[in-house]
Protein: NAD(P)-dependent oxidoreductase
Amino acid sequence: MTSTPHSTLPRRVVVTGATGKLGRAVVTHLRDLGVDVLAVDRAGGRDPRDIEGEFMLVDLTDYGQVVDALSGSVDEHARPVDAVVHLAAIPQPGLHSNAVTFANNSSSTYNIFAAARALGIHTVVWASSETVLGLPFDTPPPYAPVDEEYAPRPESTYSLNKTLEEEMARHFCRWDPELVAIGLRFSNVMEVQDYAQFPAFDDDPALRRWNLWGYIDARDGAQAVERALAYDVPGAEVFIIANADTVMSRSSASLMAQEFPGVEVRRELGEHETLLAIDKARRVLGYDPRHSWRDHV
Ligand SMILES: NC(=O)c1ccc[n+]([C@@H]2O[C@H](COP(=O)([O-])OP(=O)(O)OC[C@H]3O[C@@H](n4cnc5c(N)ncnc54)[C@H](O)[C@@H]3O)[C@@H](O)[C@H]2O)c1
Structure:
């Protein structure tokens, strides 16, 4: 492969959670741009030789393994690392006990930030979550579209941990004034094959009320990661990352009126406009989602 990375992108990047739903799209996208990617995951016991491209099995709850992965000093992977994209996590509430989710996700993210600091890596892009916005909205959102301007409202242990990770990122940035720590509050991750189920959502608006009918195409999620890697202003920032439309055929305004009649809608909404505002990501990162489920069904 002879292509060179986009000039503003880091040369070599470690991507965690690389065999997961979002990780696969991110690794492909960055490699297509010519970025030198070391993909890591614990990968459920799979043989690393079966995984395409440069890959290392790493359990992120073990600090020594994280330091090794990020140090660029492990035998076949011995090249300096410029940035980390940290996507590995137990990705939703209820898959494991709360304590297991908290222990796995919090220690993994602490180890990533701590190892990056120890090794002088100044760019960390990591997956926060839409859940910190108050999902499943049993308590309605303060206004819509929701944005990054109100304090997190975690309603699960998974989300509590993402909230604490956002706070942790701010303190790592205080300790290292050169650190750029970008938390991407992804909506519900979708691949093209998932879109076949979308038309059925129309039957009952309550089905997807829990995340204001939002979603993120994994390829657009990968674009957001690319834009975040190119962002070079030190400090901790968070961005909502969703697609530009909802999962529904009926209008966004009518969904709000039916399911959240008391919630202030702060602007005139486009027909299918996302209720998870991506204005900040567009403005600051240049994020520009290209995909829609409507193109696939
Ligand atoms: N899926 C969603 O809808 C969604 C929404 C918002 C945010 N997120 C976040 O985005 C990220 C990626 O989610 P996904 O949907 O790709 O999930 P996924 O489960 O498909 O992938 C996550 C990967 O992380 C790996 N992992 C977990 N713990 C690990 C550990 N201790 N060490 C090494 N690897 C470990 C798993 O093996 C898995 O391959 C996660 O941080 C998740 O919390 C996901």
